[in-house]
């Protein structure tokens, strides 16, 4: 079957857009082909800094004929209705229609139409220009003389050539001929702009890839990444170093080159006096270069950088390395200046006296000075939630209150909280916002803060995603919870909640962070009380926020493998100790995996169903169980078992031993089974019936202390 090769070559495609653009091209073209009635076996997309390529295998040579049946009016319908049917069906005379008979409707006209299939080349020639004109670039431009015309084509950068061939492997492919704003499709592409800028005639995908490779273009982005990574590792290893791997940077630089050539440069060792993170980010942000470290060392860097050039220079890359080195040194010189400035006194300290007094800050310490300036400048956190200074004050108060709950020293938690946002006023964080927290920790240690306080400054932002670690030190836990809860309660108080897919303040992530911190650290935290300790929030908003936490907890637990019905059975509207919820679900799951659990579930659900049906009918149910009305020994046995199970389960729940609570309920299995085997609930005697229903209600109440068994599947 024929294959399609399509290449759209432009002056440049920004690295950050390439992967998505190639995916968009594949989807738009394949969707269009399928919509036109074609099928294909496989489709793969490729990209370089100058081209988007699509390789589609096993396309039909033409689309299938489409048969359509259009029902018309009765043969006795007015002439006007019949003529309308003929126009709709595209028939010139009623004799071209068929007559069908229906037992109810009688005879009526039907048009049987056949829409002939089309040649695939014809479909492609219409499809590709429409795809190009409708392409969803985040930013695009017009160019040349045609740009003055209304509706002229837009592309990310000037589109330079279009290659489009189609045909089976055993025959010479054809050029699918079309034109887009004066750019005509062909079977010609061009190689590396410096090494091999001449025209290259290609037939199909395999020789296209081979000829591009010979022209110094590696088409496959994943292969370019492997080349860069392997060469960088080998070059570092040859110098006794390990490459500091960076997947994000690797993805970016692979989109900057068509023929990757890895080179190594160096800078003065004096620059190693600044933190490794600052060196790495300075070199990464400004020159898109990797860094290396001495083999076996994770705490320091080497004075080397590895860059990815796009050419094989005749001098072996010496000038390229030299030019990059000059920029690296200049940027590192700036970083040294930032590093030293952040440890120096601020020039306007006298202006911060009131802020220092408010927060108990020591203006002899650089980080305290930055916090005082943050408050003094009245930097806005949110228009409706006040300044960063006001926010820090709330975090301090909440961290101090939470400290005993998580086993932290209240004074240490308050000290960490008061400094947790101070590094936002440092020069380095101003240059590299992603270092907030990390730089706060370094500066805290430099001014003599204890390790727990310093660690909390860095860790209070965690976890920042599902794969990020959670803080475990009690001081960090207190500050992290205070920070996230203040954010959530604040935005709920001003009714700025996530809607649909929109979550501009990352509130879902904050809630998941709270959940992970309390669950993974084994913290019993009454959320409702914590909500009321910070920003003023009404009870309705607090209840809604708790419901939001329940939704996030369900997602978290399902991701951990918990059954959704067990979660629903355990969570109540008032459940604000999330750790208890997870413990209950785990114990319930283990219990229901046992024979006792399965059988008790069946009996309990039977009792609940009978009760629900009788309650719906308005049947009288006694307020309490009267043993004097028992007529059969199975009633006595079940009553005694329920009393004992209820008592033992309550004691176990009081001690938060939910496995023991399940074990206490398990003794109900046999008497429940025996009761339903021997006893008729709907006795003719109304008093006896009401008493037996009350006994079933006691089963529902006893098991309900652990979970709502009616919500459990099975």
Provide a descriptive summary of the structure in words.
There is one protein chain. This protein is of the alpha+beta class and 714 residues long. It folds into five domains: 155 residues; 49 residues, no CATH class; 122 residues, no CATH class; 213 residues, Hypothetical protein af1432; 123 residues, Isoleucyl-tRNA Synthetase, Domain 1 (Orthogonal Bundle), CATH 1.10.730.10. Helix content is 50%, strand content 13%. The strands form five sheets. Strands 1, 2, 3, 7, 8, 9 and 10 form a seven-stranded mixed sheet that branches. Strands 13-15-16-14 form a four-stranded antiparallel sheet, sandwiched between helices. It has a three-stranded antiparallel sheet with strand order 4-6-5, with helices on one face. Strand 2 and strand 3 form a beta hairpin. Helix 7 crosses helix 8 and helix 22 crosses helix 25. The two termini are 51 Å apart. The model has no long low-confidence stretch (mean pLDDT 93).
Largest sheet: 7 strands, mixed
Q: Supply the number of helical segments.
A: 26
How many domains?
A: 5
How far apart lie the N and C ends?
51 Å
Could you tell me the mean pLDDT? Answer: 93
CATH class of the largest domain: Mainly Alpha
Beta strand % = 5-15%
